Amino acid sequence: MELEKVLQHHFGYTSFRPGQKEVIEQIVKGKDVIALLPTGMGKSLCYQLPGYIFNKPVLIISPLLSLMQDQVDQIKQLKEKRVVALNSFLNATQKKVTIQHLHQYRFIFISPEMLLQPQVQQKLNSMELSLIVVDEAHCISQWGFDFRPDYLRIGEVMDKANRPPILALSATATQKVLGDIESYLKMNEPFTFIHTVDRPNIHMGRVLFQNREEKLDWILEHVLETAGPGIIYTQSRSKTESISERLLQMGISTAAYHGGKDTLDRQFIQQQFIDGSLEWIVATNAFGMGVHKQNVRQIIHESIPSNVANYMQEIGRAGRDGKDALAILLFADGDDEFAKFVGIDDFPNEVHVDLYLEYRRRNESPSTMIQNGEISETAYRVLDYWMHQIHPNEVKHQLLTMKTDKIRAVEEVVNLIRTKSCMREKLVHYFGQNLMEKPSDCCECCGLDYHNIIQKRESFEQDETAVSWKKRLETILLGFS
C-alpha cells in the first residue's frame, strides 16, 4: 500500500510531515505506538489516515471537552460526517441514541470518565475497533496521579487479548512519563517515535523582579507596546480576571479564561481568540490544549509553571505557523514557594487516609467526607483511587512521594529560570535530548532582543491623536493606586 496515495486522496497532501509516515506504518502493521510530535506537527493525521485505511471505528480518548469539540469540528471541515463526541455536552436522550449507534461512526471522541461507564464499555465490547488513540497522553502521568485518576484506569478497559493497536500521542514527555504511558495503557512493546522537542522559532526570555507587584506594571506596559496575539498564563483565577480587566481598560481586546467559567463561555472565548476577535487571553493552564491557532506570537508566564513539562506544553502554543514567537517567564522572589503551596494545597494527606479508614470501619461511605467538608472532591478522587490499589500504609507513602515530586518539579522550573547557561539547551536536556543548533536570539542567556522577534502594536502607532502609550499607562496606574 502506498500511504502517499491514500494521503493525497483523503487529505490532498502529497507528502508527510516528519514522523507521520513512520507512526502510521507501525499502526498499519498492528503495533502499539507512542508518538511524541511537537505542537503543530499534525498528530491528528496519525489516527485519521488509519481510520480510512482500516475502515473501522477509531476510538480517541481526549482530556478536555473543548479539545474534543475542536477536533470534531476540524474533521467535519474535511467533509467527514461520521464523527461524534461522546461527552457531558449530550443530554440523557442524546447520549443513549449516540451509544446505540456508536458502531456507525468512523471517529469516536470520548473522555476517560465516559469511557469507564458500564453502558459505554458494553457497547464498545460489541464493536470491532481499528485503533484506540490516547490523545495528550502525558496527562496519564500528569493528571492521572493528581486529580483525574480515571486516566490510570484506561488500560484496564483496554486489557483484552483481541484489542486493536493503541496509539499514544503527546508533544512532550520525559522518560518517566513515557514509562507511565506504556505501563498504565498496558502497551505491548510499543514502537516509540520521538521528535525533537526544540522549537527554534520560539525565543525564550525571562524577567526577574524584586517583588510580585512589579509584574503587573511590566505586563501592562509590554502588552500595550507590542503586538499579539498572545496568552498570559497565571496560577490564580482571580488574577486572570484582574489582569484582563486592566488590559481592557487600556483598550486591548482581552478575555479571562479559567476552569471556574461556564463551559459554553470558555468555548466562546476560545473561538473568539482563534478567529482574531480577541488579541490576548489571560488564562490559567486550563487554556490552550488543542487550540489550533497558528499565529500566537507571545506567551507570557506571570506565574511560574508547576513543572518543566507544563512550561514546554504552554510555550508550544506559540508560533505554530513557523514564524518567530516570544515566550517570557516572569519571576519574583517567593514565586517558587507560592507555586509549591498551590501544587500541594488541595491534596490528600495521612489524616485523610485515617479518616477514610474510620468511615469504612463505621460502615459508612468514605465519600461522606466530601459532604462533611473534610476533603475536596478532587482530593477525594485521588485518595479513593489509591485506597483501592494498595495497602493504606502504602497509600500514605505514595501521597508523600507525590508531594515531594511536586516540590521537586517546581525547583526544576526555578533552576531553568535562574540558569546562567542556555535556557534552550537546559530545556531540551530535561527531556533527554541534545540541542543540535541554536537559533539567533536564542534566549535571555545567549542574547535576546525582543524587537527582533515581535512587532510594535500597530493600532497605537497609527493613532496620531492618541496619547502616548506611556501617558496612557501612567493614567491607568494612577487610577488604581
TrEMBL record:
NCBIfam families reported for this sequence: recQ_fam (TIGR00614)
Natural source organism: Lysinibacillus halotolerans
MF terms (GO), sorted A to Z: 3'-5' DNA helicase activity; ATP binding; DNA binding; four-way junction helicase activity; hydrolase activity
Protein's name according to its UniProt entry: ATP-dependent DNA helicase RecQ
Pfam families given in the database record: DEAD, Helicase_C
InterPro entries (alphabetical): DEAD/DEAH_box_helicase_dom, DNA/RNA_helicase_DEAH_CS, DNA_helicase_ATP-dep_RecQ, Helicase_ATP-bd, Helicase_C-like, P-loop_NTPase
UniProt KW Nucleotide-binding keyword: yes
Gene Ontology biological process terms, A to Z: DNA recombination; DNA repair
